[in-house]
Every structure is written in C-alpha cells, then in structure tokens.
Design brief:
Layout: H1 3-34, H2 39-48, H3 50-78, H4 83-108, H5 111-115, H6 123-160, H7 166-188, H8 193-231
Length: 232
Amino acid sequence: MHNKEKKQGIIAGISLVIMAIVAGFSFGYAHNNLVTDSPENTLNNLIANKSLFFAELSGWSLILITDLIVAIALYFFFSKTSKQISTLTASIRIIYTLILGIAIVQLFKIIPILSSGNPISDELTISETASHIQLFEKLWSIGLIIFGLHLIGLGYLSVKSKSVPGLLGYLLYFGGISYTFLHSSRRLSLFNTNILDSVENILALPMALAEILLAFWLIYNGFRKSVSKIKA
C-alpha cells in the first residue's frame, strides 16, 4: 500500500471517529433532549437552552465538513481497488451530505424564531418551529437511505480490497442494507412505526459499528504500516 493511500486512510478514519463523537452529542444528546413530542415543550426547551441548541448546530456543521472529507479520502483509499465503484461510492456519500446540509438549514431557520420577542405565546411560531424540526428529520431520513447505499458500496470495495479484512466488508454490507431498508420503510410507511422503532433499536449497534470499526482499522493500518516502514 502506497504512502498516499495510507495517509488518506488515516484522514478518513480520524474524520469518521470525530464524526461519530460529534453525532453522539448533536443528535444523541442535544437533539433528543431538546425535541419532545410536544411542539410547545420543544420550543420551551429551545428557548431555555439556546446554548445547547447552538452547540448542536455547530456539531451538525462539523459533521457536514467531515462527511465531505471522508467521501474524498475513501475515494483515494479505494481507487486502486476499483476506480469506478470508488467514484460511485464517493458520489453517493456527497449526495447524502448535500441532503444532510439542506436538512441542517431547517434547524438554522429556527434561530430567528428564538431571537424574537415572546415566541412561546404565538401558536403560529410554535407550529413553524415544529415544522422546521420535522422537515429536518424527514430530509435526514431520506438522506440515510442514500447513506445506506454508500455503505453497501464501501462493503463491496472492502471485500474486493486485498488489504481490508473481509469481515469489515460484510459488516458494511449489513449496515448499509439496514439503513436503506429501515428508512425506506419509514418513508413509504411499509410497517408500523413501533415495529420499525423496535427493529432499529436492535440493529442500531451493528449499524453503527460497521463504519466505526472501519475507521479504527484505517487508523491502525495506516500508523502500523508507517511504523513498520520506519523500523525497517
């Protein structure tokens, strides 16, 4: 493996780890604590915790940047395995990132609402805030259908690669199929929401592990190769 590929692997791996940590905060902690089933309570939470909401927005912005870095870095890392599939896979992730960006804009549109005089007393404002949040979640869900296809592409490249462990490739296949199936089912209302929630809770860990394990392997492999070369 050439030095350029090793560096791209390390860049992709570190970016993926950063993304996972930031996503855990922005969505797992901030978003889930601010957004409730009640639109009025959600707006109350946003007004009372503006700093947390702004931190969430900063996190999403960082995720957007790291997503683009990962798409480009993985393209260079896998280009020798299959330039066509690597190009397609990177393009799919960039499309996902663009959709995520449009979704994030919906959250930024809430900022002027929080800056107004007394938004909680205005039913229209409460409804508008809820609408922005719902559109964010809907667009992101649509994006995750495409993200699943990206993981399937990474799975193919990992299995075909001579350097990446085959197990990682099959985990990526599984994660990609799970993302695409679950979010397609949500958008098309193929199953009861409670059933999909239960299935997603079961699959959440292996879905997340697929890309995280690839990230750790890319970092380990990149530095291990470099160290070996230095010792030699």
